[in-house]
UniProtKB/TrEMBL annotation:
Species: Lentilactobacillus diolivorans DSM 14421
PROSITE patterns: MFS (PS50850)
Protein's cellular compartments: Cell membrane
Residues annotated as domain Major facilitator superfamily (MFS) profile: 12-399
One GO molecular-function entry: transmembrane transporter activity
InterPro entries in the record: MFS, MFS_dom, MFS_trans_sf, Tet-R_TetA/multi-R_MdtG-like
Residues that span the membrane, as ranges: 12-38, 50-71, 83-108, 170-190, 217-241, 253-275, 287-310, 316-339, 351-371, 377-395
Name of the protein in its database record: Major facilitator superfamily protein
Keywords of the record: Cell membrane, Membrane, Transmembrane, Transmembrane helix, Transport
Matching Pfam families: MFS_1
């Protein structure tokens, strides 16, 4: 009797929450230390190390940007569950192989292949977006996000501790195992009542946007996702190297880097559901604009950081801003996109996120190599300001009031 009272979309949400958690924990357990792992593969000068680190981070997203629309079209015909299984199994294999890399180009190549099979989190959003009642979309998307950021919270700390003792390969093996568990969870507990699009139906970009009332807003959310990812991932190739510099190469650098990497996750975990609920009441556009303004205000002072402690405080504040960014863009697209094309809209969004995740690390690598690590934060501040302008212009073009709900 009790089981029948729980809607299937809620059961799916919690199964996908675990999958998001496994994805976030596994990735964050290994990725913050990727530059340190690469530094063990050769005696590279600073510019070369930052370049290889940027390529290693960007390669997975480069291939993801290319294939995401193809997976999105397939999802509209086969359902989101097969795409979730494809992503989870693909990352199980590729993460394990990354740990077996013997040189930097092998590592970069495996991560490029991984990008072709990734996309678990975006498919989880798309599945839930197609099922959740409109009045609960903000809270539900916020809750789903806590799975990913909760994993990102504990992943770097555990990964930093294990890396300091056993080396940088073990976290990749654990990542692979966690994605294996996510595969099982998705296969056993996610049930999708899917109605496929007929092959005769149009599946182009124009058709995907045809039923959307506020097209400029949805396009702005997609561009915003790209810029958010560019800003948030720009620090990835340099965070452990920057912490190493601040600590003057003394102490457990991997563990401290893990804590610094985890701090935004703590803040996002605490605030994402609350901001999601608030967005349901006052309008998601207000939350998004506030998040962008706070991001710009917090990123800029990072340029002047001289201690790990201050960097940690600012990283925590960025986590609060992050809770008002990607989850809110997902919510806006959920409310605006028609059910028949939601997977395609989310796949385009994933492609642009992936492009952002290529642009951010590569720009950061160039800036850090040519100038210094801290100049990356000035670059990130500029990206946030551009994002703010794009969102404001889109809402004005579609006549959506920014001061009303």
């Amino acid at each position: 009797m009790t089981k029948s009272k729980t809607p299937q979309w809620q059961k799916n949400m919690w199964a996908l929450w675990f999958g998001n958690f496994a994805t976030g924990a596994g990735a964050s357990m290994s990725l913050p230390f990727l530059p340190l792992f690469i530094s063990e593969m050769g005696n590279f000068p600073k510019w070369q190390l930052t370049l290889y680190s940027g390529l290693a981070f960007a390669s997975v997203f480069l291939s993801q940007a290319v294939v995401s629309p193809l997976w999105g079209n397939l999802a509209d015909r086969t359902g989101r569950k097969p795409m979730l299984l494809r992503a989870a199994i693909g990352m199980t294999v590729s993460a394990t192989l990354t740990g077996l890399s013997t040189n930097v180009w092998m590592l970069i190549s495996i991560r490029f292949i991984q990008g072709m099979f990734s996309g678990y989190i975006n498919n989880a959003y798309a599945l839930i977006a197609s099922e959740v009642p409109a009045g609960q979309s903000g809270r539900t998307m916020g809750t789903l996000t806590t799975g990913n950021v909760g994993g990102q919270l504990i992943g770097p700390i555990i990964g930093g501790y294990l890396s300091g003792i056993f080396g940088f390969r073990l976290p990749f093996y654990i990542f692979g195992f966690m994605m294996f568990l996510a595969s099982l969870s998705t296969w056993l507990f996610v049930k999708e009542d899917f109605k496929p699009i007929k092959r005769a139906a149009k599946t182009g970009i124009k058709d995907a946007f045809s039923g959307i009332a506020h097209k400029h807003v949805v396009v702005a959310m997609i561009i915003s996702s790209m810029l958010i990812m560019a800003a948030t991932t720009s620090i990835n190739p340099i965070i452990s190297l920057f912490v190493k510099e601040l600590m003057h190469n003394h102490g457990n650098i991997a563990f401290v880097s893990g804590v610094i990497a985890a701090l935004p996750g703590i803040a996002t975990l605490l605030t994402a559901p609350r901001l999601g609920r608030l967005g349901d009441h006052i309008g998601p556009e207000k939350i998004l604009l506030a998040g962008l303004i706070v991001s710009g205000v917090v990123y800029f002072p990072m340029f002047f950081v001289t201690t790990v402690g201050i960097l940690g405080v600012l990283r925590f504040l960025i986590g609060i801003a992050n809770a008002a960014l990607l989850p809110i863009t997902q919510t806006v697209m959920t409310l605006e996109a028609p059910a028949r094309s939601v997977s395609r809209i989310f796949s385009y969004n994933q492609s642009f996120q992936a492009i952002g995740a290529v642009i951010g690390p590569m720009l950061a690598s160039v800036v850090a190599g040519a100038l210094d690590y801290r100049y990356v934060f000035l670059m990130t501040t500029i990206l946030v300001l551009i994002n703010l302008i794009v969102v404001v212009i889109a809402y004005r073009k579609d006549g959506v009031k920014l001061k009303g709900s």
